[in-house]
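Lab notebook, bench 4. Still working through the backlog of constructs that have no structural model yet. Next entry is a single chain of 256 residues. Request: give me the structure tokens for it.
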Amino acid sequence: MIKAVFFDIDGTLLSHQSGGVPESARESLRQLKEAGIRIFAATGRHMLELARLPVQDLPFDGYVTSNGQICLDGSKTLLYGNPIHPEDTRKLAALFDRMAHPIMIIERNRMYINFINETVRMAQREISTPVPAVGTYTGNPVYQFVTYEGPECMEPLAKQLPNCKMCRWNPRAFDIIPREGGKTAGIRQILRYFNLSREEIMAFGDGENDIDMLGFAGTGVAMGNAGDAVKEHAAYVTAGIDQDGVRQALQFYGII
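Model written out:
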């Protein structure tokens, strides 16, 4: 029996074609809540970003943010934080200061970039989000780095960061998080807090950073707009976000 559903945001609940959450998805979330099923966000986004997007009014019971690195309950109280290893943080902070690449730093309550170029502008435009503010690193724990470069930069950088892994979310950008991190790591913390098992959850996603949670959840659902690699890890492939995919999957499983 499904007791909780985890939703990716971009491409799953938030359509960058329409610029909002499809009405069918909103109604589906309302019906889940009515049925006593908990709903959670599971996203690469930070809470500061969610607060500026048309998902901020959705009645989530908790949040797995920054690809599982920062987890909060429904009142946005911190449940779990997993910062990047200090050794790798020092190396990436040095790259940040050297301005070799556009790099965004994500802290518990702050996110900022070293410089902005056209690559940054294009990547942010494609996720309906303004470019981040330019800032200076002051030594706080870092939960995620975002590098705005093509795939050719990933392997050389990975060799320098033994405690990290990378996940591409755009042809022009990829996330850097702890090696043991990811959405599944964050979901495990939520399950422990709410006394749920993996067999009792469903997860929806469309991106590379959703693959682990789709395989971990008792029922993993890939959106129709997901790539083939994502779909291969799902129990069910639904319609695309703009074709009422969330509602279709929930109805297919008889949950709403």
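Notes after review: The two ends are 13 Å apart (CA to CA). Residues 16 and 129 are 10 Å apart (CA to CA). Flag for follow-up if needed.
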